[in-house]
């Protein structure tokens, strides 16, 4: 049984994060171990309970860790564990090879109506938590504890060959509104534009440490926060997307898997918007 590849994920109780966690946990050829980080223990426990647990005939139990992801001290004080069999010990969190920042919040209203609390929460959850998570991912003892992950297969004659190398990487989730703007989303768009700047800067800074940093830029996805749009708004959006539909959470999760496993993907800004971003001016 190969050593598990640890994936740390915020937003794993939401529409997109849940689909990403599920897709990694269901991967048959690569043994991913998922740890969800968030604020609500019940929701985290439920999300973990939903994940597929079987891999290669053995039972794998995923984990969660509760805390305030917007606080730098939370990330600084995570009790990391790097035992090689991937088993969780008490409250400890496995040293991650993949970090997915999928937590997010939106308050839809024109800027003059936004309260200080709404703007603060938007910046804290969408941007600040991602900054602290990225900072923690590259702290010196974690970089040291992380070992090169080589997946091997036994060939005829019992000789093993390396079939895949998984390098440490971070996937941050932005939004089409962060690149194109949109009515009633000023603070959200600002936070999501910040995610792209953060990820690009870290692709240069962390690339030298062997850590890849990439951004997913979903348009309108038929899950999570888009479900809170009115039926009328969703109909209008479907009408203007060139593919005439919303994306699915699975399509976003498949893109996350691509970024996690493609060893030359660094500084990717991968938009999944059905072509909506190309329609400006049309
Ligand atoms: N759905 C879309 O169409 C779409 C499009 C573009 C970009 N995105 C981005 O994709 C990401 C996921 O969105 P989604 O649609 O899955 O949203 P969602 O279903 O509303 O889920 C939001 C997630 O963020 C977590 N979260 C919110 N505030 C938090 C806080 N203070 N501390 C910790 N966790 C917090 C929630 O956890 P709790 O369970 O604790 O609430 C939940 O897991 C977000 O960054 C969003 O901006 C989504």
Question: Could you explain how this protein is built, in words?
Answer:
- Residues 5-228 form the Ketoreductase domain.
- One of its GO terms (molecular function) is oxidoreductase activity, acting on the CH-OH group of donors, NAD or NADP as acceptor.
- Keywords: NADP, Oxidoreductase.
- This protein is of the alpha/beta class.
- The chain has one domain (5-272): Rossmann fold (3-Layer(aba) Sandwich).
- Helices cover 37% and strands 21% of the residues.
- It has helices at residues 15-26, 41-49, 72-76, 116-137, 140-145, 176-180, 186-207, 231-240, 249-261; strands spanning 5-10, 32-38, 54-55, 58-59, 63-66, 80-81, 93-94, 98-101, 149-154, 160-166, 169-173, 212-218, 269-272.
- Helix 1 (15-26) links the parallel strand 1 (5-10) and strand 2 (32-38).
- The longest helix is centred in the middle third of the chain and has 22 residues, at 116-137.
- It is globular, with a radius of gyration of 19 Å.
- It starts with a strand and ends in a 10-residue tail after the last strand.
- The structure holds NADP nicotinamide-adenine-dinucleotide phosphate.
- Residues 11, 13-17, 38-40, 43, 69-70, 102-105, 125, 173, 175, 218, 220-221, 223-226 line the site of NADP nicotinamide-adenine-dinucleotide phosphate.
């Amino acid at each position: 049984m190969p050593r598990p590849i640890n994936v740390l994920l915020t937003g794993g109780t939401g529409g997109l994060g849940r689909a990403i966690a599920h897709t990694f946990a269901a991967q048959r050829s690569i043994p991913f171990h998922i740890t969800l980080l968030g604020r609500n223990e019940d929701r985290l426990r439920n999300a973990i309970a939903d994940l597929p647990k079987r891999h290669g005939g053995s039972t794998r139990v995923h984990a969660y860790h509760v805390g305030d992801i917007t606080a730098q001290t939370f990330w600084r004080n995570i009790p990391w564990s790097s035992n090689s069999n991937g088993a969780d010990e008490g409250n400890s969190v496995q040293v991650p090879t993949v970090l997915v920042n999928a937590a997010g919040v939106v308050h839809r209203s024109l800027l003059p109506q936004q309260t200080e609390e709404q703007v603060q929460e938007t910046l804290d959850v969408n941007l600040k938590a991602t900054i602290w998570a990225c900072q923690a991912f590259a702290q010196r003892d974690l970089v040291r504890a992380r070992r090169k992950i080589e997946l091997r297969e036994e060939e005829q004659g019992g000789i093993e060959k390396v079939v895949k190398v998984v390098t440490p990487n971070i996937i941050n989730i932005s939004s089409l509104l962060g690149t194109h703007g949109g009515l009633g989303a000023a603070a959200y768009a600002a936070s999501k534009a910040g995610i792209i700047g953060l990820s690009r800067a870290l692709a240069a800074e962390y690339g030298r440490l062997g850590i890849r940093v990439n951004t997913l830029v979903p348009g309108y996805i038929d899950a999570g926060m888009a479900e809170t749009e009115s039926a009328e708004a969703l109909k209008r959006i479907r009408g203007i997307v060139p593919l005439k539909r919303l994306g699915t959470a699975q399509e976003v999760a498949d893109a996350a898997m691509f970024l996690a496993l493609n060893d030359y993907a660094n500084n990717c800004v991968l938009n999944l918007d059905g072509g909506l971003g190309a329609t400006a001016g049309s």
